[in-house]
Input
Amino acid sequence: MKSDFTPPIGKISNINGQCISLIGNDIDTDRIIPARFLKCVNFDSLGESVFEDDRKTLKGKHPFDLEENKNASILVVNSNFGCGSSREHAPQALMRWGIKAIIGESFADIFYSNCIAIGIPCFTLLKKSIEEIQNYCNNQSLLLEIDLKNSLAKSKDLNFNLEIEESSKKMFLSGEWDATATLLEKSSLVEMKYKELPYIKFI
Amino acid sequence: MSQDTLFDKVWDLHKVSSLPGGSDQIFIGLHLIHEVTSPQAFGALKDKKLKVKFPDRTVATVDHIVPTDNQSRPFKDNLAEKMIETLEKNCLEHNIRFFNIGSGNQGIVHVVAPELGLTQPGMTIACGDSHTSTHGAFGSIAFGIGTSQVRDVLATQTLAMNKLKVRQIWCDNKLSKGVYAKDLVLHIINKLGVKAGAGFAYEFAGPAIHELSMEERMTICNMSIEGGARCGYINPDAKTFSYIKNKLYAPKNEHWDRALRWWESLKSDENSIYDDVIKLDASKVEPTVTWGITPGQSISINQQIPLLDELSPNDKLVAEEAYEYMSFKPGQLIKDTPVDVCFIGSCTNGRISDLRVAAKVLKGKKVSKNVKAFAVPGSEKVATEAKQEGLDQIFKDSGFQWREPGCSMCLAMNSDKLIGNQVSASSSNRNFKGRQGSPRGRTLLMSPAMVAAAAINGKVSDVREFIN
Output
C-alpha cells in the first residue's frame, strides 16, 4: 500500500503510469476484498488487504506482491471484472493500493459505477489487445500514457484506442464524477417529483 | 431501445432530469440501508454538512454482521458491535426508521422489506447490496449500489444512472415436482452466462413465472445479479397484490383501492419492445447444483462435470481454475459428492416457504453424523412463523442447529464460517472462492430442499428420491 494516498479530486484527464496485469475472467469483489475486511466504518486500511486470500495462496507470486509492480497504477484485467457483491470496498481497496485506472475486456455494472463514483476511470479494450498488454507485462514493465479526452493509450511500443462510456468520460473531464453536487442542483425538481409520485400518496 | 415495458414506465415516472453527461437523475422511492455499506456514506454526509433529504423514504435494519448464536449486546466481536452502534447512532441522528434486533422486524434487508409491505409495485428501490434485485419480484425497479451512491441517495434521494436495456426471459410450461425457483434461476444463469446481463434489466415472464409464488419470484429476481443484470423484475399480478395486502406498511382502506388501481395499470404492454428476448422450457429444468466457482458453473443432479472440450473458449479459463479449486475431475458425477456443512438461509432462500420445503424433506429423518447442518431464518418474522408452525422442532429433531436471523454463512461476516477446504451445500447465492469464510472453502449452491437431502445423506443427493 502506498503511504502517500490521497483520493482524486476534480477533473481527471490524463493518467500516466505503469501497468499491472491480473489474468482471469469473472474475478469477483469477494476476491478483491474478502468479506471479513468489510467490518470497518471507514475505508482507510483496505489497501493492504486487497486480494488478501489470493496473495496468501500464491505466497508472494501474486502480481500485487511482485517487487516490479509496486509502483504500478494501471490495472489490466480480463472479462467481467468486479462481478458479485456491490461492496465499494473493492475499488476503494484497489485505489488505496495505488490503482488509478483500470483497463479490461468488460466490467460488472455495479463495480463500474462504484469506480466512476470514486474517480477510477475504467476502459474497455478488445480481448486481443488486453492479451497483448498482459503478455508484455509478463516480460517487462509497460508504461502507459492515457489521454482520456481522446480515449488513447500510448507507450513506447504499443498504442491503443480505448473505449469508455461517453457519460463517464464527460464526468471525469468536467470533474463532475463526484455526483452529489450535480444531483443537489436539481433540488426543486426532486421535491416536485416526490409530490407527483403516486405511491407517496398511498401512505 | 426498449419501449412500453414496465421498466420503461417506472424509469420515465422517476426521471427527475437528464444530466449533462447523458445519464439520468432518477428518484429513489425506497432506500434500504444496513450496517456494512452505510457508515462511510453517513461519514461523507457529515463531511459535506448535508442532511438526509427524505428520512421517511429510508429504512434500516442490521443483517450482515449479526451473530446467529448469541445476539445479546454487546456482541462478542468488537468490530461487529462497533458497526451496529454506528448504525444505531446514524439512524437516531437522522431520524431514520430502524428495525433493530428484538424489534420483531429485524432480518435480512431483502427479506424484511417485502414482508413488511414496504416493497411495492412501480417503485424504484436502492440499497447498498447487490441482491436488492430481489424486490423486482413485486414489479419494482430495484438495484444494488455502492457506498458513494448510498451517500447520494441519502443526500438527494436520487441517483445518476444510465438507462438499462431490457431483456425478457420467457419461461414456458411449469417446473416439475422437486424442482424449484432456485433450480430455474441457476439454469438460466448457466444458459446465459454470468456476464450476459451487463447493461440489462431482466424481465422474467411466461407461464412458469406466473405459476411461482411471491417467495419463489423473489428467489428468481434475487439472483438476476448473478447473471450480471443489475436488476430483474416480474410484472405484478393478483398474487403480488394479495401478498402485500394487510402487511404492516401496505396502503390501507381507501389508499389500498387507489394503490391497487395504479398497480393494476403497471405492466409491460402486450406489444412492448424489448432489446432482447430469450425463451426457455421450464419443464426441462432438473434439480441443479453448482460445481465451480461462479454461479454459472452448474449442472443437473444426474449430469457429469463438463469436460474442458465441451466448454466454449471463453469458459475454459475459469473452468480450469474451478476444477483445481473445487478438487473436481472433469467428467465426474456431482451426485454423491460428500458434504461437510449444510446451510439453509440467506436472502435467496431463507424465507418461510424455503424452511417449509426443507422441513418436509427432513421430517422423521436424521442428518448424517458427518455433517454440520444449520438453518438461519431470514428474519425475526420468519423465525416466529416457523416456531408457530413447529418447523424449528422438525429441524432440531433431525439434527439441524436452529439459529437466530441474519445473513450468516452466505458471506460469513459473522462467526459462521467454513473451515479449511470443507464442502458446503448451501441455499445461498454465491460459490465464489472463499465466499463462505474460509479461503479454501468450497460451496455447492442448490435449493433448500436439495440442501436438506444432502444433509440427510451426507452427500449431494436428488431430492426427488425423498418426496412422494
